[in-house]
Design brief:
single chain; 5 domains; Beta-Lactamase; five-stranded antiparallel beta sheet; alpha+beta; binds adenosine-5'-diphosphate; Helix Hairpins
């Protein structure tokens, strides 16, 4: 029997234990209440054992619902918020069924919150009696992670190289563009010193930049040079910003690098174009002003000369020359600008290369003769047809011939050759002139390009002739190239053009020019002229036009040759050694065979007295040198229409 004292002690012990127990329970509740996670303890899928306030908060479920201990009600309400209730409930059922030792899930709720859930079994006396669920709201962390992923994607896809490094200059990140630009892969670069991409001579620069970054400064649009893996130096614009940790301390730097090699090249090209434009304008002003002084002088001479016909005609000739020069400059300018705007239309037709070349020689002849150059020609024996614009192609070759005349010291040699090469014809203009330095050759066809302004100044030009040549040749589907063995060694310009095959296009219509040409009678012509260059170039042009030509250099020879050669036409220079042109004409007219020959006197002066003298001597016509071929052609056409059979010149 227990004594009352024993009873009391037992009573007290029970009370103490009870107090201890309820303190433990209160402590447990307090601990649950103090944890930052929402905690839920369940005995089975249907019953809640305990929970804390944070759980009610996270799931936005009234405390009373939880306090009632009905887990099914909680699951219903939570599932509703989950955005996908069936999946949510299925997962809970799976956890209860399989009772895994530990699970983690990330739930994205319909309202945008992110909840991390973990479950562990609740074990008492080695027996699993339920589950402990903890829930943590990780919305902020999720957002930060998303942001980081998004930023990483932006960095990766950026067209700038983006690199980050520590304050000690150790590379920490390296995007795809950095790989492309510098040639090192991210694997190779990360962990290495940033000096990897800094050229040795620029390493001080890096130290300075690091100093500024440590002070928290940003370096913007810093243009510099960096090194690639294969040793190339590239122009970059850098923007470097300090990277701070959460405490605001600078812990490294991010570097955004943009490749400005192309931009630099474009800038340089723009500057160069601008410089050339300025130079060109100065040159243009100079070139256009040049002829103005002689023009004004000419007017003055005409005013003062009064009745001195000789002086007036000389002034007029000079003014015409100057005006023609100006017109040519302006025409070239307009043509070049039309080509560069694609405004030139070719009037293509089936034409003969020899027609193109004879027209070009005709145009360039005065310049070639003035400089006393010797011009020689070598053309293929069979006619070559082109599908081309005769005027424009003639412009090409007369430009090249004029250049050769200009850039060759007096008394040089110019060769014009054409050679058939497969389905192309290569026409070359070669001179014994000042040549072209190797470094200038690649630019010679660019607009406004001139090798040595001091020389071109003296010759007068705008540096657009070759640009025009190139443009026109390319419009014809051809190419033009320049060669020179160097200064003083002469130059060769070669134009290659596609040839029109006879057999390929049998029904090709003849052009009006060709018809006229074909109808033009081929004549036997004697050229009597003491200046050998003038004689040979004139003979050449006449031959190119299809005539049979013989040239002699004094009056006595002229008479002898006329007898042998029996020409239909004689072009008779008046001032010649041994016998002058008048005397030679007289002697020819005395012969029976000489009466029907058309004799055209060529003189330097076209005064009425000269004309009457040549008429008296028996000349049919009188032309003033330099003779324009078109003029001569017109004259011959009209003269030769005179009916033959009755002699026109009877002594
Ligand atoms: P320009 O009006 O100056 O003659 P072009 O475009 O015709 O202009 O020629 C460009 C430059 O090419 C010339 O200024 C000259 O320096 C060089 N050049 C052209 N043709 C020759 C040549 N036959 N021999 C030497 N240099 C030449």
């Amino acid at each position: 029997m227990a004594t009352s004292a024993e009873h009391l002690a037992a009573q007290q012990e029970l009370e103490r234990k009870t107090a201890e127990l309820s303190r433990s329970a209160a402590l447990l509740r307090a601990v649950l209440g103090a944890t930052t996670d929402g905690i839920l303890v369940t005995e089975d899928a249907g019953k809640i054992t305990s929970f804390n306030d944070r759980l009610a908060e996270i799931w936005r479920v009234p405390r009373e619902v939880l306090a009632a201990g009905d887990n099914r009600r909680l699951l219903e309400m939570a599932a509703e918020q989950s955005g996908d209730p069936p999946a949510f409930l299925a997962r809970i059922a799976e956890i209860y069924e399989t009772s895994p030792p530990e699970t983690y899930d990330l739930l994205e709720l319909a309202d945008g919150r992110a909840i991390e859930r973990s479950t562990r079994p609740l074990v008492l006396d080695e027996q699993r009696i339920g589950c402990v669920w903890s829930f943590r709201e990780v919305t902020e962390r999720m957002r930060a992670e998303e942001m980081r992923a998004r930023l990483a994607a932006i960095v990766e896809s950026s067209h700038d190289a983006i690199v980050s490094k520590t304050l000690d200059g150790v590379i920490r990140s390296w995007n795809a563009e950095a790989e492309r630009l510098f040639g090192h892969t991210a694997e190779e670069a990360i962990g290495q010193s940033i000096l990897l991409i800094i050229p040795p001579e620029r390493q001080d620069e890096e130290r300075e930049i690091m100093e500024r970054l440590r002070r928290g400064e940003r370096v913007e649009h810093f243009e510099t040079v960096r090194l690639t893996k294969d040793g190339r130096r590239i122009d970059l614009s850098l923007t470097i910003s300090p990277i701070r940790n959460a405490a605001g301390r600078v812990i490294g730097a991010s570097k955004v690098a943009r490749d400005i090699t192309d931009r630099k090249r474009t800038d340089e090209a723009l500057r160069e174009a601008d410089r050339r434009k300025d130079e060109f304008l100065a040159l243009l002003a100079h070139e256009l002003r040049n002829p103005l002084a002689p023009l004004r002088n000419g007017l003055e001479i005409i005013r003062l000369a009064g009745t001195d016909a000789n002086a007036v005609s000389r002034a007029r000739a000079m003014m015409e020359r100057q005006l023609a020069h100006m017109v040519r400059l302006v025409d070239d300018l307009l043509d070049v600008s039309r080509i560069s705007r694609n405004k030139i239309e070719l009037r293509r037709a089936r034409i003969l290369l020899s027609d193109v070349l004879s027209s070009a020689v005709e145009t360039a002849r005065p310049a070639i003769e003035a400089a006393e150059h010797e011009l020689s020609l070598a053309l293929p024996p069979t006619p070559i047809h082109l599908d081309a614009d005769l005027t424009r192609l003639a412009q090409v070759f007369s430009n090249l011939l004029n250049n050769s005349a200009k850039y060759t010291p007096r008394g040089g040699r110019i060769r014009l050759t054409a050679e058939r090469r497969g389905d192309q014809v290569a026409v070359s203009v070669t001179d014994t002139g000042i040549g072209i330095p190797a470094d200038a050759l690649p630019h010679i066809f660019e607009m406004f390009s001139q090798v040595d302004r001091s020389i071109e100044r003296a010759t007068g030009g705008l540096g657009i002739g070759l640009a025009l040549v190139k443009g026109l040749v390319e419009m014809h589907g051809g190419t033009v190239t320049a060669e020179s063995a160097g200064p003083g060694k002469g130059s060769t310009f070669t134009v290659r053009l596609p040839v029109l095959e006879e057999s390929l296009d049998p029904g090709f219509p003849e052009t009006p020019e060709r018809e006229a040409d074909a109808g033009r009678p081929k004549r036997r012509i004697l050229v009597a002229e003491d200046n050998r260059d003038t004689a040979s170039s004139m003979a050449m042009i006449l031959k190119l036009a299809g005539n049979e030509v013989h040239a002699v250099h004094d009056g006595a020879e002229a008479v002898a040759a006329a007898e042998r050669f029996r020409p239909e036409v004689i072009l008779m220079d008046v001032g010649m050694p041994r016998l002058n042109g008048y005397e030679a004409t007289r002697r020819i007219r005395e012969q029976p065979w000489g009466r029907d020959i058309v004799i055209v006197a060529l003189t330097g002066w076209g005064q009425p007295s000269d004309k009457s003298r040549s008429q008296e001597a028996g000349c049919d016509a009188h032309l003033v040198k330099p003779v324009k071929m078109s003029e001569l052609e017109d004259l011959l056409t009209s003269e030769m229409r005179t009916p033959t059979g009755s002699s026109r010149h009877r002594s």
